[in-house]
Amino acid sequence: MIEVKNLSKSFSGFLAVNDASLKIETGSITGLVGPNGAGKTTLFNVIAGVHAPTDGQVLLDGQDITGLAPHELFHRGLLRTFQIAHEFSSLTVRENLMMVPADQMGETLWKTWTNPSAVRAQEEQTRAKADDVIEFLEISHVADELAGNLSGGQKKLLELGRTMMVDAKIVFLDEVGAGVNRTLLNTIGDAIIRLNQERGYTFCVIEHDMDFIGRLCDPVIVMAEGGVLAEGTLDEIKANEQVIEAYLGTGLKNKEAS
């Protein structure tokens, strides 16, 4: 689905992504791991159109999407979430979800005057879609809560729900577990697996929690110093001496031995 070819991105001479090449296969949950500063989030930002690459190419289903803006990629079904959730804090969970679909008739003032019945019908469809997402994610108990009052984990679930409002093809999840307690992280993991298996979503996940990566992801891609260091199952990655020495270090060896 996604093919990254020899991608590089530099900032004022600093090479954050260095000649990285990788593939994300349709229907996979691909893990992207590496130390802080490895270039993971910058790679996400280039793929998702936040930054233009210095060099290289990004393909989506064989089509060149290099340098397209985020809103253009949104319409092609490519979405991303962020390490810090971005919600409309003064709107409810349901209202946050209903804000997502593009080109809603109610956003155009003259349509609300000339065709109010069509505007209401579309709004009812959007509300029904939001309620379906709320039920799928099992967050009905906070559907009418202001999003600003949610916990960190609930905000991450809401971000995941927003991707469901447009039936995304591929979703890039940036540290979905950051600041989330274990119970909610398991809930988020369950939702990702169900979206993958039941609705055909493809995911690429940046995460430092190796247990979470191991539960969800195959393959796992390791980045270090802006480039792709290794790829394989998590067990293969853990056994890769190059990865152990360059990234995971003795800490993983000690953890595995204990």
Question: What is this structure, in a nutshell?
Answer:
The protein has 258 residues and is α/β, with parallel strands linked by helices. The protein has helices at 40-47, 70-75, 93-98, 109-114, 116-137, 152-164, 182-199, 210-216, 234-239, 241-257, and strands spanning 2-11, 14-24, 29-33, 55-60, 63-64, 78-80, 170-174, 202-206, 220-224, 227-232.
Report on this structure:
This protein is an alpha/beta fold. It has 2 domains: 2-87 and 165-257, Rossmann fold (3-Layer(aba) Sandwich); 89-149, no CATH class. 42% of the residues lie in helices and 22% in strands. The protein is built from 10 helices and 10 strands. The protein has a 6-stranded mixed beta sheet with strand order 6-7-8-3-9-10, with helices on both faces. The chain has a 4-stranded antiparallel beta sheet with strand order 2-1-4-5, covered by helices on one side. The longest helix has 22 residues, at 116-137. Mean pLDDT is 90; it is low at 250-258.
